[in-house]
Write a structure and sequence with these properties.
This protein is an alpha/beta fold. The protein is flat and about 65 Å long.
């Protein structure tokens, strides 16, 4: 039952959710929480003081949060839309297998037959496993939606490339003896043993920002393009210390998603005085252009008017480059290159002599606009799911930038071009080895992004009186 003091609209929202009966989940009511218990996932709607509401879905088999957001109740229509998003996501989980395995060979024909055999075996063994197969040239397009990748023996030599491109997935080569005999039992047994051996990857520390100290109270929000969803990462820095933090997972992005985070954090921490948002797209004077989502919209002014606090916007790559510059002492000239998984183009943030380079209309680093002019073997749209195609795109983009600004180091985040040795060999085709920068791969760059947007907030003159 609802035991907190709240406005009448929140009480009605609570009751509305209780009335959302479905054959796909059971509704359980506890103190200030409504649980929607499905067969494969559990949803929770948690109610807090100040009309703050959390929506969360946990995958039961993996004990993994697959949907999370929070907001402060302001509008009935907005709150109901967010709950519908959560409910739809929860219902879709009924079709999700405990384990999805993707097989791949040159054409996909032989592995398709083996996948059928494995599905039959899994059904007999009462295992909630699902096997599918694709040709190798389609592997990267579908790989991230699966948990295990099985390569046929004839393409086993591609294993390192696949592991780099599908980071975080268990990638195995099918033993020739198992593949030749289509031994489903042995294959399933091998998968289970390898899953047991796999250790969870350690995440990068979230506390490296503590190297920086200041007297401000800043809410930093970073929007990160992911393989399957958008991540909104936020930190509340109270005089340089992280007092509150979290991550919101969404399939897409809108201004309301940013506002939901701000509403919640301002309600919890009314002393917040500055808001900084790092996001994809071109930013000029707080106005953002990004795909079909934002068209030269003055997001900074909108946030200033709504929250009566100083707000600033920064491009995502520029934020990361600024954070990298602040958190290392080795390079005064560096470049951060980011090409999202499945994207045909990338962008970069550039630091020269310790300063961020923006250029006219903040166009510096928008290398994607030049890639159409490169002499590529195939169009980037055709090659964005292949290691070789993406490697060619990334290397030629970096050649243009290295020849222009000659950085001491290049930091890269691009899953299908994660092999820095291979990238170096490509660059050597165009640039003398003695002029090549040091190449470093960054797996998780959100922490650098947070530092970068915090520093931008600190650097701007406070011309707006709170």
């Amino acid at each position: 039952m609802l035991t907190i003091d709240c406005i009448q609209e929140v009480k009605e929202y609570y009751q509305m959710i209780l009335n959302q009966k479905s054959r796909y989940y059971e509704i359980i009511e506890t103190d200030n929480t409504i649980v929607l218990k499905g067969e494969k996932a559990v949803g929770e709607v948690r109610f807090h003081e100040m009309s703050i509401i959390e929506l969360e879905i946990t995958d039961i088999a993996r004990n993994e949060i697959v949907f999370y957001l929070h907001f402060q109740y302001n509008e009935k229509e907005h709150a109901e839309r967010l709950f519908r998003e959560m409910k739809d996501a929860l219902i879709k989980m009924k079709d999700k297998r405990t384990l999805n395995v993707l097989l791949s060979c040159s054409s996909g024909l032989t592995t398709s037959f083996f996948a059928d055999q494995l599905n039959s075996a899994a059904e007999l063994l009462k295992l909630d496993y699902h096997f599918t197969a694709v040709a190798y040239n389609e592997l990267y397009e579908h790989g991230m939606q699966n948990d295990v990748i099985l390569l046929a023996p004839q393409i086993g030599f591609q294993m390192k490339k696949v592991q780099a491109g599908l980071k975080g997935k268990l990638v195995l080569t099918i033993p020739a003896q198992i593949f030749a005999s289509y031994d489903s039992g042995a294959m399933i047994s091998m998968i289970q043993k390898e899953l047991e051996k796999a250790k969870p990857k350690q995440t990068k520390t979230q506390w490296m920002e503590e190297k920086l100290t200041n007297d401000a109270r800043i809410l930093a929000i970073g929007i990160v393009n992911g393989a399957q969803q958008i991540r909104l990462v936020y930190r509340y820095y109270n005089q340089g210390n992280i007092e509150d933090y979290g991550t919101v997972l969404k399939p897409n992005i809108s201004i309301r998603d940013i506002e939901d985070i701000i509403d919640t954090q301002v309600a919890r921490h009314p002393e917040i005085e500055r808001i900084g948002v790092s996001m994809p797209g071109t930013e000029v004077g707080g106005k953002v252009t990004y795909g079909d989502t934002f068209n030269h919209e003055d997001i900074a002014l909108h946030l200033i008017n709504k929250y009566k606090r100083w707000a600033t916007i920064e491009n995502d790559c520029n934020s990361v480059a600024t954070g990298l510059n602040a958190l290392q002492d080795h390079f005064d000239n560096l470049l951060f290159y980011f090409q999202p998984y499945g994207s045909a183009f990338g962008g970069s943030g550039i630091i020269i002599n310790g300063q961020l380079v923006r250029g006219k209309n903040h166009f510096a680093g928008e290398i994607g606009n030049a890639q159409n002019a490169f002499n590529l073997n195939h169009s980037p749209q055709e090659t964005r799911w292949t290691n070789d195609g993406v490697l060619e795109t990334v290397s030629k983009a970096l050649v243009a930038e290295i020849c222009t600004v000659a950085p001491e180091a290049v930091f890269v985040h691009c899953r299908l071009a994660a092999d820095m040795n291979a990238l170096r060999e490509e660059l050597k085709k165009y640039i003398p080895e003695e002029s090549l920068p040091e190449l470093r791969y960054i797996d998780n760059f959100s922490e650098y992004m947070m530092v970068g947007i915090m520093l931008k907030c600190l650097s701007e003159i406070d011309i707006y009186s709170v």
